[in-house]
Specification:
By secondary structure, the protein is of the alpha+beta class. It has 16 helices and six strands. Bound molecules: calcium ion.
Length: 382
């Protein structure tokens, strides 16, 4: 949902940002305490005055950069009035509180020069680590009943739901601290390459706030407008979020249960096939025309017989189990990994349009599933 990866070969949509860039920005650390000696006190006072000066300048610049009078914002307000019956003055007031966030522009802008080549092993190592596996095992244990209920209702395995929440936000620990209204207004009005997409998301945020009876400025999340535990964009919250603990409201900030149901519903709505495989490692014969097969795209369109004829099979030599895509995971200086991605692999890429992303989710899910299996066997032996 965060669409924070970039995988040109396997992309059907332009993604929002680059994979190599962390999408979570932390707030600055609190100021260091200074020992109260006289000269230090003086220094503190001077630094304080300087800080206040910088701060007031910052506030001034930000105030000038609000969106109340932005030309494009005016058109947007008129559109919201005409299509959704928003009150013009009220919306003007709301957008006057949205601040231009230069950091958001910096984070979304692709690097001018191509950086280091993409590395699957580099990407993978960020998600297949001890913290995420142990955190996921804990999260699963804590929400066992709700995960089982989601699996039963939507047909999506618990480990896949846990893995997505793990990859997105480390089980709710890194949900981002950008004010969503300001981030989306900045992208909608000051980032022309993606203005259309982000105007739709700003529109969705305003509609969501109205539906939830919340102040539009009360939401926070990633620099690209993704919210809470599962990092849903506002349009996805409106389309796919479910009130899974049935307390009368959807809450992604403090309620992992709503996130569990919503992730499962999202994958279900995008065509998850219960009990079907996600992906398996491929074996490639030397004569296989790998480039053409990979170029067939991320949607599983290659018939098992086509792949067999080309010399592509599962690792055990069997023909692919179903229509598949051939996924190539490149790491500079290493042999490329090839995988057969099935329908459910494609469904994971609907959450984030990248094969690196989908493979990380799949591998983390498998690691969590095996870990639980081992724990269950140990518990039985005790
Ligand atoms: Ca709820």
């Amino acid at each position: 949902m965060t669409l924070h990866t970039h995988d040109p070969k396997h992309e059907t949509h332009h993604s929002v940002a680059d994979a190599t860039r962390p999408h979570i920005i932390r707030s600055p650390a609190s100021p260091t305490r200074i020992t109260p000696q006289p000269w230090r006190r003086l220094r503190t006072a001077l630094l304080g005055a300087l800080g206040a000066g910088v701060l007031s300048m910052g506030v001034c610049t930000n105030a000038q950069a609000s969106y109340a009078d932005h030309h494009e914002a005016q058109r947007f307000i008129e559109d919201m009035r005409a299509r959704h019956d928003f009150d013009t003055a009220e919306l003007q007031n709301t957008l006057a509180r949205a601040q231009r966030e230069p950091r958001v522009i910096r984070l979304i802008t692709p690097p001018a020069r191509k950086g280091a080549p993409r590395s699957w092993q580099g990407y993978r190592s960020r998600f297949l680590d001890r913290t995420r596996i142990e955190g996921g095992t804990r999260f699963w244990r804590e929400h066992e009943a709700e995960l089982a209920r989601a699996e039963q209702q939507f047909g999506v395995p618990a480990e896949v739901i846990v893995a997505i929440i793990g990859v997105e936000t480390l089980y709710g620990r890194n949900t981002g601290n950008f004010e969503t209204l300001s981030a989306l207004a900045t992208l909608a009005f000051d980032y022309p390459p993606r203005a259309e997409l982000f105007r739709r998301e700003l529109e969705s945020l305003l509609l969501l706030a109205r539906e939830q009876g919340r102040d539009p400025a009360s939401y926070s999340g990633s620099y690209a407008g993704a919210l809470g535990y599962p990092q849903f964009l506002p349009s996805s919250v409106r389309a796919y979020a479910v009130d899974f603990d049935a307390n009368g409201r959807i809450d992604f900030e403090s309620n992992p249960v709503d996130a569990i149901g919503s992730v499962a519903n999202y994958l279900h709505a995008h065509g998850w096939q219960p009990g079907a495989p996600v992906a398996e490692r491929a074996r490639i014969a030397p004569q296989a025309d790998v480039a053409t097969l990979v170029a067939a795209g991320i949607e599983p369109a290659l018939a098992p017989e086509t792949l067999t004829r080309q010399g592509v099979s599962a690792l055990d030599g069997d023909a692919p189990a179903a229509l598949a895509t051939l996924v190539d995971l490149e790491t500079p200086g290493e042999e490329t990994e090839f995988w057969l991605g099935y329908r459910n692999f494609y469904v994971i890429t609907r959450y984030n349009r990248s094969s690196f992303y989908a493979m990380s989710v799949f591998e983390l899910a498998e690691a969590l599933r095996l870990r639980r299996l081992v724990e269950a066997i140990r518990a039985e032996r005790r």
